[in-house]
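queue> pop job 88
queue> type: inverse folding (structure -> sequence)
queue> payload:
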């Protein structure tokens, strides 16, 4: 029994740590998509947040300034997405992919120009990383509080009611005299804050600096968790924990000798979380119905 506990406790801790950026990014996407704006740029905003958080935290020696910089980077890219898709009715998928490509190229280029370390930032000292409180990082606690807060905002507040309405029937919201564009921009700002914080967690909390492509598809995993959770906070949290659990398990399986198999190649083990994502979505996505106005630009009738 003691051996089982000794195995499960570290695995549970690793699951929570790995799930934190997924939950933050998935909640970010939830606000955006509930407002009717498809946001596949979560990956790009996380990557930008990770870079600017690490760069500012290293230069200033202050992790809170780094967190602010990561959040600001996420918000800036979210506003770019809003300008293209909300203000000008552009294709939301194309805009999101453009932001992902921009962040993937810009972050390591700036890192190389500023630090000359091959596209990464210097290793952060402990004083430049977000602190732990009660055995967990402060962003882990904040993320745990954000899930019930998001559920309350969406289902118990006027803003949440309007947000869900604008994702289902923006014409009715406009007829009621409420600005559709204003609501969608507010949702995108929240998306930028949360996705930037998710990236900052990777570089100045869970990690100790920025490296090229350090998000490693976590933005897309978060989007998959959001779809699997049917755009609802609690099921989305459960999906994030499931994906994080498989990720934590695959790390511990690397180099392990399995009966009748031997040592499984590292590449095969690393793909387990992504294979699980595909299998789950293949089995459940057909029953997950997105907000009706998701991805459809709203054109106000005069």
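queue> result:
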């Amino acid at each position: 029994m003691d051996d089982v506990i000794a195995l499960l406790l570290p695995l549970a801790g690793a699951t929570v740590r790995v799930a934190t950026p997924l939950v933050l990014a998935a909640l970010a996407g939830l606000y955006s998509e509930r407002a009717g704006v498809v946001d596949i740029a979560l990956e790009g905003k996380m990557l930008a947040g990770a870079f600017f958080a690490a760069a500012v935290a290293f230069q200033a020696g202050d992790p809170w300034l780094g967190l602010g910089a990561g959040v600001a980077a996420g918000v800036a890219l979210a506003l770019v997405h809003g300008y293209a898709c909300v203000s000008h009715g552009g294709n939301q998928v194309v805009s999101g992919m453009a932001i992902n490509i921009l962040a993937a190229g810009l972050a390591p280029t700036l890192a190389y120009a500023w630090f000359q370390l091959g596209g990464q930032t210097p290793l952060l000292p402990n004083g430049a990383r977000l602190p732990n409180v009660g055995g967990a990082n402060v962003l882990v606690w904040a993320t745990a509080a954000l899930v019930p807060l998001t559920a309350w905002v969406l289902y118990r507040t006027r803003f949440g009611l309007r947000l869900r309405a604008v994702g289902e029937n923006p014409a009715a919201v406009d007829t009621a005299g409420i600005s559709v564009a204003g609501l969608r921009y507010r949702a995108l700002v929240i998306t930028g804050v949360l996705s930037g914080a998710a990236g900052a967690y990777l570089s100045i909390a869970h990690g100790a600096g920025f490296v090229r492509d350090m998000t490693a598809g976590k933005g897309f995993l978060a989007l998959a968790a959001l779809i699997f959770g049917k755009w609802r906070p609690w099921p989305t949290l459960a999906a994030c924990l499931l994906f994080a659990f498989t990720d934590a398990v695959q790390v511990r399986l690397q180099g392990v000798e399995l009966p009748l198999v031997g040592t499984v190649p590292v590449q095969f083990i690393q793909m387990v979380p992504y294979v699980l994502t595909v299998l789950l979505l293949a089995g459940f996505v057909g029953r997950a119905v997105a907000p009706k106005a998701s991805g459809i630009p709203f054109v106000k009738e005069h």
